[in-house]
Amino acid sequence: MSTIEASDSNLVAAQATPRPAPAALLPLATFAVILCLWEAAGRWLGLPEYLLPSPSAIFRAGIAVDPALWWDHIQATLRVIALGFALAFAVSLPLAAALHRYRPFRRSVYPLLIVVQSTPVVAIAPILIVTLGATDLTRIVITALITFFPLVVGIATGLAQTPPELLELSRSLKASLRSEYLQIRLPFALPHVFAAVRVAITLAVIGAVIAEFVASERGIGYFIRFSTSYFKIAQAFAALGVLVVMSLGLFHLVTLAQRIFYPRSLPAGGGE
C-alpha cells in the first residue's frame, strides 16, 4: 500500500508541476512588456513623435509605406548582405587555413588584420567611394570588411581543435594535406565555424546598412537616411524594426542550417 500511495503522490506532484514554457515565449513576452512600457511612457510623458515615436505610431508609419517599396529596399539590402558575406567567407577560409598552418605568416599578417578590424568602417567608406565609386562593388566590399574578421578568427581557432592523436594517425597513413584539412580538421572546426558565421551574418547587416548610408539610393540604410532627413522619425524606426527582423531571421537561418547539417556541433539547448 505504501508503494502505491508513494507512486500516486509522485503522479500528483508531476501533474501539479508546471511545464516549462517554450524557449521562444520568454523573449517574446519580454519584448511585449518593453513595447507596452514604451507606449505607456510616451503617452504619459507626452513626448513628440519627432523625438521618440510610440510603438503604435511606428506601426502606423510602417504600414503606410507601399509594400512594394519596402520589398525593393529589403531586396537591395539582402543582396548586399549575401554578396558581402560570400566575399568575406571566400577570403576568410583560405586565409584562416594559412594563418593556422604557417606560423611566420600568422605572426606577420595577424597584426595587420587587427589593425584593419580596429579601423572604423565609417572612416574607410569615403576612401572606398572615391576609389571604387558609389557602386554595388563598394557596398559589397564595405560589408565584407566588417564581416571577415570574426570568420577568420573562428575558422582558424576551429582548425586548431583537432585531437593530436587523429593527426598522428593521418600522418602515419600518409594522408595528403588536403585530406587532413577536409576530412579531419574541418569536422572538428565546424562548431567554431558556425559560431563565427552567426556573429558574421549579423555584422553583415550592419555593414550593408553603413554602406547604404554613404553610397546608395536603395536599401534599408538609404531608407533610414531618407526618412530622418525629412524628419519622418517614426518611419525610420519602422525601417529599424525591419532590420532587426532581418538580423534575427538570418541568425536563426544559420542555426537551422547547423541543426540540419551538423547537429552534433550545437551546444546544449540547440544553440538558442
What does this structure look like?
The protein has 272 residues and is mostly helical. The chain has one domain (60-265): MetI-like (MetI-like fold), CATH 1.10.3720. It contains eleven helices and no strands. It has helices spanning 2-16, 25-45, 55-64, 67-101, 103-118, 121-132, 136-159, 164-172, 177-214, 220-229, 233-261. The chain is globular and about 75 Å long. Mean pLDDT is 81; it is low at 1-18.
Q: Major sheet, described briefly?
A: none
The gyration radius over C-alpha positions equals: 25 Å
| Overall pLDDT metric | 81
The ordered string of helix (H) and strand (E) elements is HHHHHHHHHHH
Question: Helical proportion?
Answer: over 70%
A few lines on this structure:
This protein is mainly alpha-helical. 81% of the residues lie in helices and 0% in strands. The chain is built from 11 helices and no strands.
Structure characteristics:
disordered N terminus; mainly alpha; MetI-like fold; MetI-like; membrane; 272 residues; globular
